[in-house]
Write a structure and sequence with these properties.
By secondary structure, the chain is α+β, with helices and mostly antiparallel strands. The protein has 2 domains: about 5-115 and about 140-175, HIV Type 1 Reverse Transcriptase, Chain A, domain 1; about 120-140 and about 200-280, no CATH class. The chain has 6 helices and 16 strands. The chain has a 4-stranded antiparallel beta sheet. Mean pLDDT is about 80; it is low at about 255-275 and about 280-285.
Length: about 290
Amino acid sequence: MATISMNIPFKHRPPNLPDNRQMLDRRLYLLGKRLTRDPDLKKKYVTEIHKLLADRHTELVPEEDLCRADGCVWYLPHHPVFNPKKPDKCRIIFDCTARANGTLLNDQIHQGPDLTNKLIGVLLHFRQEAVTFTADIKGMFHQVVVNPADRDALRFLWWKNDDPYNVPLEYRMTVHLFGGVWSQSCANYAVHRTVEDNASEYSNSARQTIKRNFYVNDCLKSVASVDEAIYLVHEAWRYKIPPCMKLKDYCSVEGFTSTSGCRIAEMLSILYLRMSGPLMFRQLTM
């Protein structure tokens, strides 16, 4: 599978970031107290940290870079977040909005162009044909690698042997972050650029699907026949469409293919029951 690597689009190079290690030490201390009080949460948190390491989404800071003091180092606090629909799954969020010495990381980085398809357009295309299917890109932001020169701006601390009573070690993320103001633009650009660079390898239908039928990491696609849908899905799996991404969880109202056994697609807070029925929206509560 192809991999794409991109810089963090800092507004200034070098970015001249202040030392925020003291703020991070305080946040890590509070996280340690919380995990110590809640062994079940600690177990889930440790599992996610180990997963980041196993997937090579994070790495130990090389010894020669530990004392780096050139304005390119920033430490990210992190905390757990839970989805009410998946109470047993813990997601680690790195806080790109944490402020230290009047500075926060997201303010130092360009947001980038809005390359996300308009939701209304994706929904209208989804309603055009009789057969529909959906899919999403697994860990979209984490599939775009950060170039090594910028990784020290994504440092974080974690304890040796997962024990809050031990001295913390310094890690740095190797991929773009959920919560980074720049990440969505970079991920969308990665998808479109890799398709353009390898256009001869994919059918026109596949290219149009990527350009028109994705809303961030969610694909909502309709085609005229079951055979066409099966062909497109098989092409996606065989040729890794998009080529730098891993697709997962195909689901169809026709039931022709499904990795999860699901027959009702619930995505983007839209409950879609049948093509003959109306679109019904569920209001989000913040």
